[in-house]
From TrEMBL:
This is Vitamin B12 import ATP-binding protein BtuD. Pfam families: ABC_tran. Residues 5-238 form the ABC transporter domain. SMART domains: AAA. The gene is btuD_6. InterPro entries: AAA+_ATPase, ABC_transporter-like_ATP-bd, ABC_transporter-like_CS. GO terms for molecular function: ATP binding.
């Protein structure tokens, strides 16, 4: 598969201890149509990595290439049209839900694809009655889904998803997984998805990137990663997530 996005030796220093790295030596590819889950315990810098990839933050070393061209040669706004970040805490712009959905076409001076927006909203359980609502009055889960549709309308080549199902009920979560799956198949979008839900990783990703100890320790096909993790850190992480994570009532973080 051809790489759409290539990370080359990316590093980020800790702001609380600049002689140490939050992460370093991160090299990886995202291919067209590929669905990749980015996992690891809290505080590894997963969100920071995604924000750097979307050029909302800067790396302290390394390069990112989109279709073989370094980010430094792209205008930031052109880059962000291709590499789009969907935040865990969605920011709604002032105005109605429809105003938010129309943001992309307004910014790009392109026609608003009402039919596509309607299909995506319906697929996520947000009927047309939502369109006139003030966006500020939506629940957290509704905002998350509207923000996702708003990003899809940009038709980015790479979609960076930061725990976008974190505040959704199981039904809405499934709907998001299904829409993103159909979308990447149809549009060829490469998805990189941060999640702490290993069932979601197994069902909704082709590849796994596993971060620990400030490194991208594993990049594997999802089945191979769970069947036979190569590192002790990944083995401990999987065992902890499946038996002892806070979701299962335990608090202690594994030594990965
Ligand atoms: N330069 C830096 N940039 C960002 N975060 C930094 C930096 N230096 C130290 N940190 C700390 O490292 C952590 C990085 O947080 P980040 O959200 O990127 O990690 P994460 O792996 O996505 O965590 P979570 O799974 O909890 O969302 C935070 O605790 C932050 O305070």
């Amino acid at each position: 598969m051809t790489a759409l996005l290539t990370l080359h030796e990316l590093s980020k220093r800790r702001y609380d201890a600049p002689d140490r790295y939050l992460f370093q030596g991160v090299s990886a590819d995202l291919a067209q149509g590929q669905r990749t889950a980015l996992i690891g315990i809290s505080g590894q810098g997963k969100s920071t990595l995604l924000r750097i990839m979307a050029r909302l933050d800067t790396a302290d070393g390394g390069d990112i290439l989109y279709r073989g061209t370094s980010f430094s040669r792209w205008k930031p706004n052109d880059w962000r049209k291709q590499v789009c970040y969907v935040a865990q805490q969605p920011v709604m712009l002032p105005g109605s839900v429809e105003d938010n959905l129309q943001t992309v076409s307004r910014l790009n001076g392109t026609p608003f694809d009402r039919e596509l927006a309607g299909r995506c909203m319906e697929a996520l359980g947000l009927a047309s009655t939502y369109w006139a609502k003030p966006a500020s009055e939506l629940s957290g889960g509704e905002k998350q889904r509207v923000a996702l549709v708003r990003s899809l309308l940009l038709r980015p080549a790479v979609l960076l998803l930061d725990e976008v199902t974190a505040s959704l009920d199981p039904g809405s979560k499934k709907a998001v997984e299904q829409l993103l799956n159909d979308w990447s198949q149809r549009e060829g979008t490469a998805n990189l998805w941060i999640t702490h839900d290993l069932e979601q990783v197994k069902q909704a990703s082709d590849r796994v990137w596993f971060m620990a100890e400030g490194r991208l320790l594993e990049q594997e096909d999802t089945q191979a990663f769970f069947a036979c993790p190569r590192t002790d850190e990944a083995r401990r992480f999987i065992a902890w997530q499946e038996t002892e994570s806070p979701e299962n009532g335990k608090e202690e973080v594994p030594n990965v």
